[in-house]
């Protein structure tokens, strides 16, 4: 059934607001025990049917059956930020009222003197105050959470399952005209309708029991389109993407969640191609590549209808990825689509990678000239270690975040920290997002670089300082703790590793002559690395000790089991583990035990060992006698 995986709070935290829909940046609370506190059950409240409980999150109270008839993942917190809604509704003359935002403060993330970025960050609050003062002179329609706004945003949650997210939207996001919570399951739709009445949001929230694709296909007309479409399916969203890019309004928001990370992270490249039109590669940068694969798929499907995407926020957290993209229409811009995609060449030995754009564009006065790209950028073997290259992609090669939008989201979270239980983690992840090099796709992993040559891993600050001393830019990545995102070519990275190895020598005699380590270290570095720590090598998010990477908040953390179509009680994960414990029998180490098994070659008449055979011939003879 269409039942969707209610994303963990981490997912929603990333939901960077939409056409009135929320922007959430999902993250679990830093206190593992608090996840249990956010979900309270009660069977004594009036109006409950036998076997029902009440699941509470935020302001929402969802009626939920004890049986696993409707999918629900506990610990989902909607860290909703309404920046996208604020932008869209301001154009319609509507001002949203968010509790706690009277003394809103925009936090300056970076104190580094890198061009004009710091100046823009410091000037932003003044500009916003000027706009607010000018707006005070105008007449605005105010919209509050829980109230229906006739000129507000229309939201569709295509695979709503328990409807928890939709109910929270209705209770906590101001400026909404309507919310359609759809699920293919009749039981789920009935529970959504009852939950809407239970929370007194039936005037905003309507339950729907239909196929999600058909709901969106029927909304392709300009007047019927939704301002925000949220798709959070169980597994891959690929069956719904074609309908989604057509059903979202001009400039509207698509919120897409993918939990099929095994496919997108390289375990099944052929399956990834069948779903997303891109071959995934098993690599250290697989999580960012997964983000770029789904963005490529969205842009490719939108281009069919002369539409294109603008990524606002793309995050990889926990066990899923979530992207927030704005969809617009424009035939001229769609022509740039080929130049935004790239094939990926990945070395299987040392992990060096190269991108090959699918198309090329050149400016000729007021016009753009488009042509086929030239390549490949590398030979069949890696120039550093001599190993072969893998070909992956195509992937989205443009920025995956809108830095200005993320700054607004971050300012709203940091300026109103008591609104969300997970505000600390949201602030940490968004801070890392703003620090990433937006024009540098993918990243290297420091401990993988050192393990390739079997040397000690250099401290991150020293390695980053060496890159900065060499005249290159470097940043971390929110997708990996030890990531090195840099515009330096792979040769510079290996030169720095070679210089580090000279002071931390490796026993060369133990290295095979054909190994990547031997071939890399046998080349003398052309760059003399300087490992003196620089002040700007330490990012602001690290200096401020923000919550950037968090351990799992509870045991068995991950996507929950799919809801059963016929209802019934589903087994707990611990019970399943006990049930299947020892299913894969241990291999027999004592050869005498093999006599309890019949000899297959004796059955075929090809066994030449006779009485010395370690398997039993008598069992075969007894079986034949019984058959006779």
TrEMBL record:
<keyword id="KW-0808">Transferase</keyword>
<feature type="region of interest" description="Disordered">
    <location>
        <begin position="111"/>
        <end position="140"/>
    </location>
</feature>
<dbReference type="InterPro" id="IPR029063">
    <property type="entry name" value="SAM-dependent_MTases_sf"/>
</dbReference>
<feature type="region of interest" description="Disordered">
    <location>
        <begin position="1"/>
        <end position="51"/>
    </location>
</feature>
<keyword id="KW-0489">Methyltransferase</keyword>
<feature type="compositionally biased region" description="Low complexity">
    <location>
        <begin position="33"/>
        <end position="45"/>
    </location>
</feature>
<keyword id="KW-0819">tRNA processing</keyword>
<keyword id="KW-0820">tRNA-binding</keyword>
<comment type="similarity">
    <text>Belongs to the class I-like SAM-binding methyltransferase superfamily. Trm1 family.</text>
</comment>
<dbReference type="InterPro" id="IPR042296">
    <property type="entry name" value="tRNA_met_Trm1_C"/>
</dbReference>
<dbReference type="InterPro" id="IPR002905">
    <property type="entry name" value="Trm1"/>
</dbReference>
<dbReference type="Pfam" id="PF00642">
    <property type="entry name" value="zf-CCCH"/>
</dbReference>
<dbReference type="Pfam" id="PF02005">
    <property type="entry name" value="TRM"/>
</dbReference>
<feature type="compositionally biased region" description="Acidic residues">
    <location>
        <begin position="123"/>
        <end position="137"/>
    </location>
</feature>
<dbReference type="InterPro" id="IPR036855">
    <property type="entry name" value="Znf_CCCH_sf"/>
</dbReference>
<keyword id="KW-0479">Metal-binding</keyword>
<dbReference type="GO" id="GO:0008270">
    <property type="term" value="F:zinc ion binding"/>
</dbReference>
<dbReference type="GO" id="GO:0005634">
    <property type="term" value="C:nucleus"/>
</dbReference>
<feature type="domain" description="C3H1-type">
    <location>
        <begin position="593"/>
        <end position="620"/>
    </location>
</feature>
<keyword id="KW-0862">Zinc</keyword>
<keyword id="KW-0863">Zinc-finger</keyword>
<dbReference type="GO" id="GO:0002940">
    <property type="term" value="P:tRNA N2-guanine methylation"/>
</dbReference>
<feature type="compositionally biased region" description="Low complexity">
    <location>
        <begin position="12"/>
        <end position="24"/>
    </location>
</feature>
<keyword id="KW-0949">S-adenosyl-L-methionine</keyword>
<feature type="region of interest" description="Disordered">
    <location>
        <begin position="555"/>
        <end position="590"/>
    </location>
</feature>
<keyword id="KW-0694">RNA-binding</keyword>
<dbReference type="InterPro" id="IPR000571">
    <property type="entry name" value="Znf_CCCH"/>
</dbReference>
<feature type="zinc finger region" description="C3H1-type">
    <location>
        <begin position="593"/>
        <end position="620"/>
    </location>
</feature>
<protein>
    <recommendedName>
        <fullName>tRNA (guanine(26)-N(2))-dimethyltransferase</fullName>
        <ecNumber>2.1.1.216</ecNumber>
    </recommendedName>
</protein>
<dbReference type="GO" id="GO:0160104">
    <property type="term" value="F:tRNA (guanine(26)-N2)-dimethyltransferase activity"/>
</dbReference>
<dbReference type="GO" id="GO:0000049">
    <property type="term" value="F:tRNA binding"/>
</dbReference>
């Amino acid at each position: 059934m269409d039942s969707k995986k209610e994303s963990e709070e981490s997912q929603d935290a990333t939901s960077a607001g939409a056409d009135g829909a929320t922007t959430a940046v999902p993250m679990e609370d830093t206190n593992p025990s608090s996840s249990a506190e956010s979900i309270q059950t009660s069977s004594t409240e009036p109006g409950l049917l036998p076997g029902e409980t009440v699941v509470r999150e935020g302001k929402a109270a969802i009626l939920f059956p004890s049986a696993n008839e409707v999918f629900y993942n506990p610990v989902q917190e909607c860290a909703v930020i309404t920046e996208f809604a604020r932008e869209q509704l301001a154009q319609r003359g509507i001002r949203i009222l968010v509790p706690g935002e009277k003394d809103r403060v925009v936090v300056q993330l970076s104190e580094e003197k890198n061009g004009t970025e710091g100046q823009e960050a410091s000037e932003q609050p003044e500009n916003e105050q000027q706009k607010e003062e000018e707006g005070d002179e105008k007449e605005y329609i105010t919209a509050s959470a829980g109230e229906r706004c006739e000129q507000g945003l229309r939201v569709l949650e295509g695979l709503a399952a328990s409807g928890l997210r939709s109910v929270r939207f209705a209770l906590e996001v101001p400026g909404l005209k309507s919310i359609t919570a759809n699920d293919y399951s009749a039981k789920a739709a009935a529970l959504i309708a009852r939950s809407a009445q239970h929370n007194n949001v039936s005037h905003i929230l309507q339950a729907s029991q239909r196929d999600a694709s058909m709901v969106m296909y029927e909304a392709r007309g300009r007047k019927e389109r939704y301002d925000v479409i949220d798709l959070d399916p169980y597994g891959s969203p690929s069956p719904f993407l074609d309908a989604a890019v057509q059903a979202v309004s001009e400039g509207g928001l698509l919120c897409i969640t993918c939990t099929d990370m095994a496919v997108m992270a390289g375990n099944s490249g052929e399956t990834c191609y069948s779903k997303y039109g891109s071959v995934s590669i098993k690599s250290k940068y697989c999580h960012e590549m997964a983000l770029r694969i789904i963005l490529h798929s969205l842009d490719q499907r939108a281009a069919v209808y002369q539409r294109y995407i603008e990524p606002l926020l793309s995050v990889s957290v926990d066990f899923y990825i979530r992207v927030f993209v704005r969809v617009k229409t424009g035939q001229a811009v769609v022509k740039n689509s080929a130049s935004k995609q790239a094939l990926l060449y990945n070395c299987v030995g040392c992990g060096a990678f190269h991108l090959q754009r699918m198309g090329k564009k050149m400016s000729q006065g007021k016009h753009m000239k488009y042509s086929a790209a030239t390549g490949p950028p590398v030979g069949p073997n890696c120039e550093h270690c001599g190993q072969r290259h893998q070909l992956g992609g195509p992937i989205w090669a443009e920025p995956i975040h809108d830095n200005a939008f993320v700054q607004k989201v971050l300012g709203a979270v940091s300026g109103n920290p008591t609104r969300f239980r997970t505000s600390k983690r949201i602030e940490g992840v968004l801070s890392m997002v703003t620090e990433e090099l937006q024009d540098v796709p993918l990243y290297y992993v420091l401990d993988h670089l050192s393990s390739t040559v079997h040397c000690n891993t250099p401290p991150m600050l020293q390695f980053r300082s060496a890159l900065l001393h060499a005249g290159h830019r470097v940043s971390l990545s929110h997708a990996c703790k030890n990531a090195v995102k840099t515009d330096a070519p792979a040769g510079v990275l290996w030169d720095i590793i070679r210089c580090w190895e000279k002071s931390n020598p490796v026993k060369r005699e133990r290295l095979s002559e054909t190994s990547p380590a031997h071939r890399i270290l046998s080349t003398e570095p052309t760059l003399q690395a300087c490992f003196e720590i620089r002040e700007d090598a330490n990012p602001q998010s690290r200096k401020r000790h923000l919550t950037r990477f968090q351990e799992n908040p509870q045991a068995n953390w991950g996507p929950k089991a799919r809801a059963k179509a016929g209802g019934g009680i589903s087994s707990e994960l611990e019970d399943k583990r006990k049930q299947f414990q020892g299913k894969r029998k241990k291999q027999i180490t004592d050869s005498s035990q093999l006599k309890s098994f019949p000899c297959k070659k004796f059955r075929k008449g090809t066994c030449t060992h006779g009485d010395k055979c370690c398997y039993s011939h008598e069992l075969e003879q007894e079986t034949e006698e019984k058959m006779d």
